[in-house]
Structure prediction request, 202 residues.
Amino acid sequence: MISLKKDGGYWRAVINRPDKANSLTPEMLERLCEIAEAARDAQVLVLTGVGKVFSAGADLDAARAGLATSPLWERLSGAIARLPGLTICALNGTIAGGAMGMALACDLRVAVPGAKLFYPVMKLGFLPQPSDPVRLAALVGPARAKMILMAGQKIPVEEAQTWGLIDRIVEPDALVTEVRALAADTLAADPAHARAIKAMIR
Prediction:
């Protein structure tokens, strides 16, 4: 349910469980962690999904069994954030819950029109993973972070773009092409040069 395609330095990981809104099981989350940890060898890592939802977060049955508070979420977002290459979250649709962590950890977030972003930890009674509020506030500011985490608002990507949470909105049939175009300069550069630029930005 998690596939990985490598094209030279371009790695593309795909969440493929559209019948369950791409909700993540422990096995799927573990696989994403393994990919992100191995992607130190990639120049570009893209995360995307199949269908109209990027990911609804934890699978409901798995969440009740403890996945909602699993350290795997933090392991995944931390591995993505540490990558020296360019990381892009290509949101093929709505993103919710713990899945927000991997998007927040990416360098760029590209989305299709009509998608929404929400993180209902207040309503569900869970704390977000430790790094997520910090990364969210760094992107949108404290008040808007509270709008999502404390007021439980579902933010349309069109509004999220004005906040700085989404970097570009593209039509679904252009998503793959647009993401590849964003990766082009990094893929064409000497990997050490690209990594040095990312280190300077950090």
About this structure: Strands lie at 2-7, 10-15, 44-49, 53-55, 86-91, 94-96, 108-111, 116-118, 155-156, 168-169. The mean pLDDT is 96. The longest helix spans residues 175-188. The first strand starts at residue 2 and ends at 7.
